[in-house]
Design brief:
Elements lengths: L6 H24 L3 E9 L3 E9 L4 H8 L4 E11 L7 E15 L4 E6 L3 E5 L2 H9 L4 E5 L8 E10 L6 H9 L10 E6 L3
Antiparallel strand pairs: 1-2, 2-7, 3-4, 3-8, 4-5, 5-6, 8-9
Length: 193
């Protein structure tokens, strides 16, 4: 003979299970990168990407960094032109990588943007500020986009494990500590020139 669950007990179990699953989803979201804002700006040099990211490093990444393993954060952008008769045309695909490293002898953090700019910082938070609020970089020449045309823009950032030393790439594939990325942020931009 089957016994039925007491209805209030059933609802209590359901609510606890739902609360637990929401808590896990929130913890996973907290480990990711959030794009707070992203937009294109028209300048004399071309079209620049202005973006702000929010994230914190987990303990595993901080430990790896302080032991001399550099971390690479890559921001990717895709600018596409919608077409009604065929697939959308990808006008521009670009990326910028910022490397964060720690020098044990000088006890300083270093941040380098794709080999162009290198700065030293006293704290990790100061070095990560360059990643969270990168300089506005030129993603397209001034003549690359047609004036008055609307374009779909997609931006994302991720910890690029492909640039790590080979033994750490294998470890990064098997460890959730090394999975740090954002979702694609989509917006529409109308060229002004």
């Amino acid at each position: 003979m089957k016994q039925k669950l007491f209805p209030p007990f059933y609802w209590l179990c359901t609510i606890l299970l739902l609360a637990f699953s929401l808590q896990l989803g929130y913890a996973r979201a907290a480990d990711g990168i959030e794009i707070e804002q992203a937009h294109l700006e028209d300048s004399a040099e071309g079209y620049r990407l202005s973006a702000t990211f929010a994230f914190d490093l987990n303990r595993g990444l901080e430990d790896a960094l302080t032991r001399g393993i550099p971390l690479y954060f890559t921001t990717e952008i895709e600018i596409t032109r919608p077409r009604w008769y065929w697939f959308d045309a990808k006008e521009i695909v670009g990326s910028q990588t910022i490397r964060i490293s720690y020098n044990v002898l000088t006890r300083q953090y270093h941040a380098a943007i794709t080999g162009r700019l290198q700065q030293s910082f006293q704290t990790l938070d100061d070095a990560l500020s360059l990643v969270r609020r990168p300089n506005r970089w030129v993603v397209a020449d001034k003549d690359a986009l047609k004036a008055g045309q609307s374009y779909a823009v997609a931006v994302r950032m991720q910890l690029d494990v492909a640039q790590l030393p080979k033994p750490f790439q294998v470890h990064a594939l098997n460890s959730s500590d090394w999975r740090l990325s954002s979702n694609w942020k989509h917006f529409i931009y109308t060229a002004e020139r």
